[in-house]
Amino acid sequence: MKYNFDEIVNRRGTYSIKWDGGELIKKMGLTDRYDEETIPLFTADMDLPVPQPLIDALHKTVDHRIFGYTVFPDEYFEAVQHWFKKRHDWEFQKEEIVYSPGTVHALNVAVRSLTQPGEAVIIQRPVYPPFTSSIEANHRTLLNNPLIVDDRGYYSIDFEDFEAKAKDEKTKMFILCNPHNPTGRVFNKDELKKLADICAENNVLIVADEIHGDIIRRNQTFIPIAKAAAEHADKIITFTAINKTFNVAGLHCTNVIIPNPELRKTFFGVMGMHLPSPFTVSALLAVYHEGEDWLEQLKEYIDGTMEWAVNFLAEKMPKVKVRIPEGTYVMWMDFSGYGLSPDEVHDRIYNKANVLLEDGKMFGDEGLHFQRICIPSPRPMIKEAFERIAREFEDLK
């Protein structure tokens, strides 16, 4: 089936946080302006229709007319195993899969269950803001191993600093984001192996957020760290999800892979039992069995949008430094070339252009002059957003 991702689907009135959550978004301080003309591209949530087999499966669930307590059939776990074996050549056992209603929820559970107050956790900023809150809100010590960025906007790992922080006797956990949000790096096997070796040598547990692992550019390869460093798998916990891959964040379906039975028992003991929605089970089975064709078309579409965006910025806003990310569907744009303060950049984009992005400072001080844009929306919408932004910077050419 050929999907038309250029189709603009009106999401207003569907309880969408992007399109119906304006007042909440203003209260959160993300923007001062939000109205019917706002183009919201701030959250990792697609404005694209999901695969037809998923729609058919959910209709079948609705047609049953009863939505009671739900269990996981064996087929659910087998579908997860099959997907990762086929797509990423990564194998794990059924009993290693633990369901969570969300990735941020699982992240907080991991920090609470597997570290103690006052112990230290390493993250690599600029990084997804809940990494920080999961540490600080749970009264752990945050250790930042900032990524190194070159003059081309390419990010790499400061291994010397990472090893020094891993050797700190207070350090008990490292939270990895791969593919990395917001920089878009897809770390290679050597990088992953080196991180895992350092952690193993210093008895540091790895918690890997890999929920963007299915969304990578053409000619890129995503490798789960538990595969890259299989000899250390018993000290690695991996978050996977259908939420980002298939645009079903509202169905709450994260699967946590925990090979170590003691860690699994501890994690589950703190999280407690969470039963799925019948829609969650139907959705996962549908997309993992019949969603690959849609995913491949989606990746081609996102690649095309990113290529258009980079070319547009090079022509219309050459002072913005940006590169096509190796993975994810976010772009990380450096506005420092304009010589404006972050607040001035914010005002031009959010209030004057009326486009809602995410200020880079949310991802740490390393993102101070950056803006993150999520681009899995119809290309006509993305084009309008960039054209609006460019007009507000024309006076600074």
Note the main sheet. Answer: 7 strands, mixed
Approximate strand percentage: 5-15%
Number of helices: 15
Strand order of the largest sheet: 2-10-9-8-7-3-4
Radius of gyration, in angstroms, nearest whole number: 21 Å
* Averaged pLDDT: 97
Ranges where pLDDT stays below 50 over 5 or more residues in a row are none
Helix coverage percent:
40-55%
Shape: globular
Ends: how far apart? 44 Å
SS elements, strand count: 14
- SSE pattern, N- to C-terminal: HHEHHEHEHEEEHEHEHEHEHHHEHEEEH
* Main structural class: alpha/beta
Task: Outline the fold blueprint.
Layout: H1 17-20, H2 22-27, E1 39-40, H3 52-64, H4 74-88, E2 97-100, H5 103-114, E3 120-123, H6 129-136, E4 141-144, E5 148-149, E6 155-156, H7 159-166, E7 171-177, H8 189-201, E8 205-209, H9 225-228, E9 236-241, H10 243-246, E10 254-257, H11 261-271, H12 278-290, H13 292-316, E11 330-334, H14 342-352, E12 355-356, E13 358-359, E14 370-374, H15 379-391
Helix pairs in contact: 3-12, 4-12, 5-6, 5-11, 7-8, 13-15
What does it look like?
The chain has helices spanning 17-20, 22-27, 52-64, 74-88, 103-114, 129-136, 159-166, 189-201, 225-228, 243-246, 261-271, 278-290, 292-316, 342-352, 379-391; strands at residues 39-40, 97-100, 120-123, 141-144, 148-149, 155-156, 171-177, 205-209, 236-241, 254-257, 330-334, 355-356, 358-359, 370-374. It has 397 residues and is α/β, with parallel strands linked by helices. The strands form 4 sheets. A 7-stranded mixed sheet has the order 2-10-9-8-7-3-4, sandwiched between helices. Helix 5 (103-114) packs parallel to helix 6 (129-136). The mean pLDDT is 97.
